[in-house]
Amino acid sequence: MRIERDDLSRPEVEMLVEYHLREMHAHSPACHVFALDSSGLRHADVTVWTVWDDAALLGMGAMKHLDDQHGELKSMRTAPSALRRGVARAVLDHMIGEGKARGYRRLSLETGCTAPFEAAHALYRAAGFVETGPFAGYSDTGFSRYFALDL
């Protein structure tokens, strides 16, 4: 597995972003989907990483700079063909390391709260994240769960 910073210029990455958005809208009310589209992921305060096995795209993750001490994890997605291969944990560990390298004191994330998100909740807990409340302008709508990791 190879993890690299990505500029979203490859079609297979764009397809994974689109798949991620479709899945988010399939499992949450549209007004409660906070996933970034490609233009949002290209914003200057967002860094995207992709995971590859040779030329095969396995997954992705992104980090949004909130302030000098706080980053937000975004767009965690494993390609359907790569599920249960450790892709999500690899990109999560990479982003935790990047957060530490940036000097962040905390990483936070927002995710869904329904059954399709339970595997993600387990992943975040296994990496040391704890459930918290809303942050960075999010509000408690009943459709999200919030996690944070103190670095």
UniProtKB/TrEMBL annotation:
Pfam families: Acetyltransf_1 (PF00583)
Keywords carried by this UniProt record: Acyltransferase, Transferase
Domain annotation N-acetyltransferase: ranges: 3-151
GO terms assigned for molecular function: acyltransferase activity, transferring groups other than amino-acyl groups
Listed CDD domains: NAT_SF
Keyword Acyltransferase part of the UniProt annotation: yes
Xref: PANTHER family: AMINOALKYLPHOSPHONATE N-ACETYLTRANSFERASE-RELATED-RELATED, BLL8307 PROTEIN
Protein name: GNAT family N-acetyltransferase
Naturally occurring in which organism (per UniProt): Sphingomonas panacisoli
